[in-house]
Design brief:
mainly beta; 9-stranded mixed β-sheet; about 10% helix; Umud Fragment, subunit A; 9 strands; about 170 residues
Length: about 170
């Protein structure tokens, strides 16, 4: 197997088998699992407000974030854009990719394309339901697709509105 690997990549098999150049950590060395977390902001990271689904659904125009006093929490994100907002995932409709409690950052200034994840609003009984879904296109019809097969796709209609594109997911353990 290693011979085929070496041949495919044009590497001398003796270099693969040699222990002289291996750089594996020893038992006493620490191996970083990740370089940066949201609790370790960089000089370019920004405070992104974590909104409720209700607040996200009421964003009528780009850049119209709720007043500072109505925002309960923030997350640090090193992303372009000044209108980004975050949401805590609720429900199981988008499992296994998005789980309850994950934090997603949404950019309302990016026009979503098929197969991207979006926040969308659906009018329902005089109010709006806000959903995290994948935007799908079949022929000329767009759908809001749930990754969990328990839930059905929703055909996108004129009365529905995409609020923005999901640009980041933060998972906490």
């Amino acid at each position: 197997m290693l011979e085929r690997f070496a041949q495919f990549f044009g590497i001398d098999l003796s270099k693969i088998l040699s222990t002289q150049h291996r750089q594996f950590p020893t038992v006493n060395e620490t191996v970083p699992v990740y370089k940066r977390t949201s609790s370790q902001p960089t000089s370019t990271s920004k405070k992104v407000p974590i909104l409720t689904y209700t607040q996200a659904g009421t964003l009528q125009k780009r850049g119209a974030l709720p007043p500072h006093q109505s925002i309960q929490d923030y997350v640090e994100a090193d992303l372009p854009g000044t209108n980004n907002f975050a949401l805590r995932v609720s429900g199981n409709e988008m499992e296994p990719e998005f789980r309850e409690g994950d934090i997603i950052v949404v950019n309302p200034d990016i026009q979503p394309k098929p197969n991207e994840f979006v926040i969308a609003t659906l009018p329902k009984h005089g109010s709006e339901t806000v959903l995290l879904r994948q935007l799908r296109k079949v022929g000329t019809t767009y759908f809001l697709h749930s990754l969990n097969p328990t839930y059905q796709d929703i055909p996108l209609q004129k009365k529905h509105r995409t609020v923005g594109k999901v640009v980041l997911k933060q998972k906490y353990y």
